[in-house]
Design the sequence.
């Protein structure tokens, strides 16, 4: 089956419009498979830093590389602080070589990363580095993913973040006793007898960003465990009762998702990793069913109004959701 035959119409020309250079760039590279050396791809990539959301976000950045107050990088300025801008800028394909992006990456590594474990924390200490007791799995996954996107894969600090995921991330599915010891004791919602899906998804997202030839055996093994965990849930159902949804909100597609996730993001990660398992089919069919007659998908969930800059409009056709849907269908049916 050709993946394009599943579309009610071809939205590619719409995605290639000049108003959103990020979507245009990823459409050229991921959907049309133009090489990075293609002049149009190179030109569009440069425009990401000049047109649209990315320069608007960067215009609000402090000269030291953070947003809002430096200590409010996660909680007190939720969706407006530095952590959240790093995630959004990585999603939008901002240039990791840009000095402003590098400053933000360094700020996060200096203030959020726990110097003892390598995980990422929602609070910093007075002496520097992230608070050991505040390390979160979803935050660690998001920060590692963002930093890898920005070219930090070879940095020893990011390698320590990857090692944290490999060592501590769990994939428990209703075990009899919750794990004990750090970091499990204080984070019932993150770990407990049933691991939080968000931690699994964001950890997988981070590891999937590592090129195949640079994945260690430990990384590969962790990916396999995480993928099987999600497949046992058929992406969005309860593994012990597949007639029930894990999270009804996952059926509403959003962008950017921050700590949250949905069916489309999970399928995007699994198909990027090369999986085409029959347990994904119901979720794939859900994606197909949500397109309109023009082959477009709507933005159904958003944190707009809480960002530094709003991204698209809820209830309207979304170039980002459409792009991500095409990526999933292309990978799954190719």
Sequence:
């Amino acid at each position: 089956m050709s993946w394009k035959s599943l579309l009610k119409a071809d939205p590619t020309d719409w995605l290639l419009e000049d108003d959103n250079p990020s979507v245009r760039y990823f459409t050229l590279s991921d959907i049309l498979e133009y090489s990075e050396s293609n002049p149009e791809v190179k030109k569009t990539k440069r425009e990401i830093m000049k047109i649209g959301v990315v320069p608007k976000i960067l215009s609000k950045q402090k000269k030291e590389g953070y947003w809002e107050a430096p200590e409010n990088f996660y909680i007190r300025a939720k969706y407006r602080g530095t952590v959240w801008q790093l995630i959004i800028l990585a999603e939008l394909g901002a240039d990791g070589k840009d000095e402003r992006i590098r400053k933000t990456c360094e700020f996060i590594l200096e203030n959020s990363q726990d110097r003892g474990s390598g995980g990422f924390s929602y609070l910093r200490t007075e002496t520097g580095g992230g608070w050991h007791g505040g390390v979160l799995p979803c935050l660690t996954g998001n920060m590692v993913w963002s930093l890898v996107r920005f070219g930090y894969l070879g940095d020893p600090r990011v390698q320590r973040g990857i090692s944290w995921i490999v060592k501590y991330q769990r994939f428990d599915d209703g075990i009899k006793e919750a794990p004990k010891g750090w970091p499990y004791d204080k984070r019932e919602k993150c770990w407990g007898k049933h691991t939080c899906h968000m931690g699994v998804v964001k950890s997988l997202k981070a590891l999937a960003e590592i090129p195949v030839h640079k994945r260690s055996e430990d990384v590969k093994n962790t990916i396999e465990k995480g993928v099987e965990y999600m497949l046992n849930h058929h992406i969005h159902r309860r593994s012990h009762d597949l007639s029930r949804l894990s999270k009804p909100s996952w059926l509403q597609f959003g962008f950017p998702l921050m700590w949250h996730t949905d069916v489309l993001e999970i399928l995007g990660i699994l198909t990027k990793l090369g999986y085409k398992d029959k347990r994904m089919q119901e979720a794939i069919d859900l994606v197909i069913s949500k397109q309109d007659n023009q082959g477009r998908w709507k933005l159904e969930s958003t944190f707009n109004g809480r960002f530094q800059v709003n991204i698209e409009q809820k209830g309207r056709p979304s170039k980002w959701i459409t792009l991500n849907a095409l990526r999933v269908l292309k990978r799954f049916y190719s």
Remarks:
- The longest strand covers residues 241-245.
- Strands lie at 237-238, 241-245, 297-298, 317-318.
